[in-house]
Design a protein that fits this description.
Elements lengths: L3 H7 L16 H13 L4 E8 L6 H4 L2 H12 L5 H9 L1 E2 L2 E2 L4 H8 L6 E6 L2 E9 H4 L3 H17 L4 H22 L7 E3 L8 H15 L3 E4 L2 H7 L10 H9 L3 H18 L6 E2 L6 H6 L10 E4 L4 H14 L8 E4 L5 H10 L5 E6 L1 H4 L16 E8 L2 E2 L14 H10 L13
Parallel strand pairs: 6-7, 6-11, 8-9, 9-10, 10-11
Antiparallel strand pairs: 1-5, 1-12, 2-3, 4-5, 12-13
Helix pairs in contact: 1-9, 4-8, 9-10, 9-16, 12-13
Length: about 425
Amino acid sequence: MVDIATRVWNHKWKIDPIVRSLIDTDFYKLLMCQSVFRNKPDTQVTFSLINRSTHVPLADLIDEGELREQLDHIRGLSLSRGESTWMRGNTFYGKRQMFRPDFMDWFENLRLPAYHLERVGDQYELTFEGSWPEVMLWEIPALSVLMELRGRAVLGDMGRFELQVLYARAMTKLWGKIEKLRTVPDLRIADFGTRRRHSFLWQDWCVQAMTEGLGSSFAGTSNCLIAKNRDLEAIGTNAHELPMVYSALAETDEALAQAPYQVLSDWHDEHEGNLRIILPDTYGTQGFLDGAPDWLAGWTGIRVDSGDPATAAEIAIKWWKDRGEDPTQKLIIFSDGLNENKIVELAAQFAGRCRISFGWGTLLTNDFKGLTEGDRLAPFSLVCKAVSANGRPTVKLSDNPRKAMGPADEIARYKRVFKLGAQDDMDVEV
């Protein structure tokens, strides 16, 4: 097993580049990329870094030259023969050749497009512009680089023994969580922690710990490279990016109201089974389900990713019942702001009422809270989102108004079109 503390002490990034591969990304990104490649390949998008935790001064912590060096390294990456073979020949969600030959031919020749980096005060402005299938693949590696460079900036002042103790404490902390989760009957949980991980090596260690500690209850990881290397299931479906861009492309209010369903219609044509998971909260869960076509009720399940998770799950269960579906045969995936206590609570609350699963992110792969002086390694909320499509701004409303993004006038328009009423303001958990 890798001695992470020693590797950090040596801190020679050319031995340990932050992003090692184009498949050091989340599985849903590749699935969505194929869908975009098929349905919207010529759409021009802009992605932008958004630091919701403005108290973390990234530009003061991270050297611009080092950041550029890491980003330039990513631009030089291409798919290896072994990675291509894994994608072309592996079985994902019970399906062989999940990735089509034309998409794979394109992906094998891909190099990520240019980036724009500028310091603005104590933050970085980092943007990516170009065709949607290419630009979207910057999101996860860009976040991984910034999260890990922030960590390296803090760790760089620590001595060898201090680092050994820090990682020993973090390992003990995670193992305590695993021991608590062992008490949950019929637990099914996966790693969703790539985008805000402490580091690649730490995420890999966490996945190995979950594999050993939870056995068959650990469903796999969203990280494709780790899934490949550790012979685990690659887990993931789709994200808010798809309805955000489809909606931005809508010419009229009527087309806007239908855009989130058009996304899933395109997805329906490509996927089946456990890949047919609805993400309903982009413009409000209740409104989305109220206006959903009947065929969506036949999908496998729903992912809950904002607002109060129990409330969203109750809304989903009622919707299924109203549509003549049996909720006990449906899957609810909880994936927002989870900690071990919330997982135990939700598992007990919905046991026997539906099938449940958990996608555990930041507090699996980046929980160093309370382990450093001044809590300098505490996780923070950093995102990289599509902010425009073909020159039009994107909007996200969410079930938590603190996660809303977009110009104020467009937010108001979307609230009107999607009939979004009053919402409860909640802290953004990372």
